[in-house]
Write a structure and sequence with these properties.
heterodimer; A: alpha+beta; DNA polymerase, domain 1; 2 domains; 7 helices; disordered C terminus; B: alpha+beta; Enolase-like, domain 1; 26% helix; 18% strand
Chain lengths: 204, 352
Amino acid sequence: MESEYATHITLTVNGEPCAVTVDNRMSVLDLLRERLGLTGTKKGCDHGQCGACTVLADGRRVNACLALAVACDGAGIRTVEGLAGPDGLHPLQRAFLRHDAFQCGYCTPGQLCSAVGMLTEPGPSAVTQDLALDPALTAGEIRERMSGNLCRCGAYVNIVRAIGSEAPPGREVAESAISIGDTAPYPPAGRLDAEGPGAEGALR
Amino acid sequence: MRQFGYVRAVSPREATGQYRDGAAYLGGGTNLVDLMRLGVAAPDRVIDVTGALSAEIAAAEGGGLTIGAGVRNSDLASHPLVRERYPMLARAVLNGASGQIRNAATTGGNLLQRTRCPYFQDVAMPCNKRSPGSGCQATAPGADTGHMAIFGHSPFCVATHPSDLAVALTALNARVRVVSPADGGPASAVGPEGDPQDGTRQNRGRWIEMPGLHRLPGGVPEQDTVLHPGELITEVELPPPPGAGNTPARQTYRKVRERASFAFALVSVAALLEVDADGRVRECRIALGGVAHAPWRAHAVERVLLGVPPSAEAFARAADAELRYARPLPGNAYKVTLARNLITSVLEELMP
């Protein structure tokens, strides 16, 4: 199908090399779902507004619906299928389970990929007071940084908790800063880890 | 989506050389790809310029900053020099879109994004910007004008410019460098070595001052900017931030929107205030977003405040001097009040 309107591209998807000829109009999202059978990445709005299609392109989170596959020639794409390692689920996936951070689950692959990318992003956000600092990831910071991912079930409270529990060293979250309204007490992540998912209900 | 040929350019010169009628330059794609999917844009050739444009931010001679047009929004906002010396710029970019979109969107593409007027984005509606001469649904009876302009609109178009970045650049007196297909030829190596001030300017593109890149709609709303067909933004240059030494100018950006994040501005303001040792305003700059077809530099505010002691009363008087020129539409008079309060409140925040 090579023509003026199609292009042969090579990319890496979840570590696997992939060579494919694509219609120039094809998005990375459609390439993943329709050509490569990787249906973990979800199509929500197809306009970059919901974040369900979020994947990591060369380590940076992007909306796969707005990225033309042809423009990603040579890129490394990581999807939700590529988050888990040989030792099992990615720590954020475990955190989402532990904190019950979803209801229907449709937005979850995008939330996960977005959070993985977000936790590596330096610098302030729109809610950071002091631009000179790389702020601690308070609930307010997490909400702002995750605003590109909608959850129509409204599981935001536990999504924020799950992500907060996996903040990297140096950007730890004050326990008091991660609950609803940033003020209510929050059970330490370690305690939940120790007691398992079943303990969560008793702590509410 | 209409079929299109795809070309990946490796230099600005190659990109402009590939340009022809019906072509479009592709940056991060966060607006263009969406418009193509909506049928609003239908280029038959897409020239990918992400590999052609500089993605570097560098301190310029004399204390300014040079930003490659290929710099992604997220890299711009997190750059130490931008955060330290141009905080209104960092805040403006951080207030735009989402983390995912900022990772993809480029500096040049951000400036050239199209309006989010719902009638422009809906191909079933008449729109003079999308289809010149077809009419303006936003001025029809019963139209939703809540997000439309209050300054500088015409009977043909009342849309607003959506960029936050452009508002900050307008307040900072930035200028953009553009090259055009006509700049081609062996002597036209366009790059950091090119000096636009010397006699070879013709071959090295041209500079456009901000404000001045974006235009008001008048009778030709299909033209968002003063760029000619095929012209490509290659870099943005910022002069040194005003104010130094004992009385540094303070600056910020504040945006009011319908939800706390990931929404376009109802009204936004990029503001800078410098007060001298005698307690009088030495310099004030105000640019507004969400109120016009272009970032709106509020010259009246700046004039009224020059040389007077800063106070809430003076700020309100200055804001009124600007808003006297507002022409709200049925349904968006709230923007006049909002802009007044926003200007006053942000300037109070910047008082020493």
